[in-house]
Amino acid sequence: MGRGLTLLLLPLALLAAPAQAEGTAAAEQVQIEVLHLPENCSPKSKKGDLLNAHYDGFLASDGSKFYCSRTHDQGHPKWFVLGVGQVIKGLDIAMMNMCPGEKRKVTIPPSLAYGQQGYAQGKIPPNATLIFEIELYAVNKGPRSVEAFNEIDKDSDKKLSELEISQYLKEEFARDGKKRHPSAHDEILADIFKKNDHDGDGFISAKEYNVYQHDEL
């Protein structure tokens, strides 16, 4: 499944991520240095937004580079949803209120990175303080935005029926244009309700859908 369709289906299929504390004490432990700020700094990133960025990671202890997004995945910038644990907690904090074109250098303590265990596969030792140089390219509405919910909720009753989601899937499959097994639609629909209809009432409520806790819903 291509990235485009994957992102289109994320509003429904994305598993609820554990909530992460964003207390002031934790945020103060991440040191942020703004290296470049565009004259027009908008929009600014917030929890639940879909970001596209390049970043290099260094060990603070000796300055050695352990990661460079420009040398992975054919050098494409990385896509991820901010604030839901798809990156280490320190990066979730460090990239809040950041705008496209902005560059930051951030220092992240072990408690907000890989902690006492480290990350051997990534060549990160235990209790390592990490430094990242980040360049943000895009800030998009996240896959569970209010806009995405309202697009699917055709009758505006603040809950998604099986019929509404089924129709949404058909439209996205048609827009994507790829050939799929006839059973793909029913399998995805069943999986969506299995993962999101927590009270089993046959609908996905705004609360069940809203893993990022937007006030608008």
Automatic annotation (TrEMBL):
GO MF annotations, alphabetized: isomerase activity
Domain EF-hand stretches: 140-175, 184-217
Keywords carried by this UniProt record: Calcium, Endoplasmic reticulum, Glycoprotein, Isomerase, Metal-binding, Repeat, Rotamase, Signal
PROSITE patterns according to UniProt: EF_HAND_1, EF_HAND_2, FKBP_PPIASE
Catalytic activity, EC: 5.2.1.8
InterPro entries: EF-hand-dom_pair, EF_Hand_1_Ca_BS, EF_hand_dom, PPIase_dom_sf, PPIase_FKBP, PPIase_FKBP_dom
Enzyme category, top tier: isomerase
Secretion signal span: 1-21
Catalytic activity of the protein: [protein]-peptidylproline (omega=180) = [protein]-peptidylproline (omega=0)
The PPIase FKBP-type domain, residue ranges: 48-140
Protein's recorded name: peptidylprolyl isomerase
Source taxonomy: Eukaryota, Metazoa, Chordata, Craniata, Vertebrata
